[in-house]
């Protein structure tokens, strides 16, 4: 009888611990919404979403392929780390995704493709996603902002770095009407 009581009690305790663990992973909190044009602290980056539009050419002047159009989102980015980085390719995504997963990124000061951004230098960039010409672009784009957390020492290698990617929030960007051409 003691064995049965102990077994049932142990199973109940294990079930309660499992239930509490599962409940702790629930994310019923709404995802924060950031206003367009406001600075967002995204861990290693400070991002300011500026504008969104549909174009027939990329910022470097190349026309997109026949049957496609470009969704261009202009942002101002500041690298808040001590090293040059190109992790900004994973900073913003479209929700729902359209076209390619990662955008092409161009520096607006010289219209060249962006490779890396240097520490503490604010740069204006154009993020470009291409999609089929007949694909609908909503009047307001929903951008998801991703961030990472700095750890002085990670658990696996014992090195410092930016880890644990997560969603910080969303930004609703009104899409400007394309220029008639």
What does this structure look like?
The chain has one helix at 2-24; strands at residues 33-34, 40-42, 45-55, 68-79, 92-94, 104-107, 122-132, 140-151, 161-176. Strand 2 and strand 3 (45-55) form a beta hairpin. It is mainly beta. The protein is 13% helix and 41% strand. The termini are far apart. The protein is elongated.
- Average the pLDDT over all residues and give the rounded result: 87
Low-confidence stretches: none
Strand content is 35-45%
Q: Residue share in helices?
A: 10-25%
User: What is the helix/strand order?
Assistant: HEEEEEEEEE
Structural class, from secondary structure content? mainly beta
**Main pleated sheet:** 9 strands, mixed
Q: How many strand units?
A: 9
Task: Give the overall silhouette.
Answer: elongated
- Computed CA radius of gyration, to the nearest angstrom: 22 Å
Distance between the termini: 86 Å
Tally of individual helices: 1
